[in-house]
Amino acid sequence: EGVGPQEYTLIKMQALELNGKLSALAGAGPVYLLAATLRPETMYGQTNCWVLPEGQYGAFRGLNGEVWICTQRAALNLSYQERTPVRGQPELLLELSGSDLIGTPVSSPHCPHPRVYVLPLLTILTNKGTGVVTSVPSDSPDDYTALMDLKKKPKLREKYGVKDEWVMPFEVIPIIDIPGFGNMAAVKVCEDMKIGSQNDTAKLAEAKQQVYLKGFTDGVMLVGPHAGRRVAEAKPLIREEMLGAGAALLYSE
Ligand code: A2H
């Protein structure tokens, strides 16, 4: 990580049902989970999203009568970046834990599925981004191993109350070709390195080093309106389109 601020795109993923504790938000306005990403162009390959089960989140009053779900820390940063109604004072509507969010169906911009589900990821840091992460197993080794863990381990699904139908139907989607790595670079690197699970953190760090920079600099989009273009060129275009459509927010920290 550099010394300058990190510029994230926050993807607005709309909650399609408000179950359990979330039902208290009925009538409060459209509810969005805000996922922080450095790679908005990968939304074409989204299979799910992630929260930390033990993490603390909140539902906050956003702009235009919307409700935004993220960590308290991210809500405060957003409010100082003038992205909430009152500067410096995010209005907390409802306290939530990650577990309260698991199983929520969401609809996300550019996602090929009309609904994907919120699932548990144990390596989420609550002091980075929003604590909500979009999952793109084709291009992120973290996302690929965590999704495979849930698919392969019924006990893990049981532990976090994850239903089979939130996980099993969702296959890795090729969205970017990286010369030397093919069209599902994260799958290839995880298989080549024999990464067994999301807890294989040392190998995962190495896998990420191999694919992230290369994906951004040498990757070519296979899908969407910018298919055929380099990822480095497509990313800012897709990001601007999402911001213009009100489907995403800028966020830096
Ligand atoms: B990226 P950096 Cl396909 N905890 O989005 C753990 N990981 C987090 C996080 C948190 N609180 N907040 C965001 N992230 C992930 C997509 C993606 C990402 C792809 C490829 C590379 C990639 C799909 N997941 O990141 O430490 C998010 O995953 C490459 C670094 O701030 C976010 O972008 O540099 C990235 O980590 C931000 O990581």
From TrEMBL:
Top-rank lineage group of the source organism: Eukaryota
Protein family (similarity comment): Belongs to the class-I aminoacyl-tRNA synthetase family.
UniProt protein name: leucine--tRNA ligase
Protein source organism: Astrephomene gubernaculifera
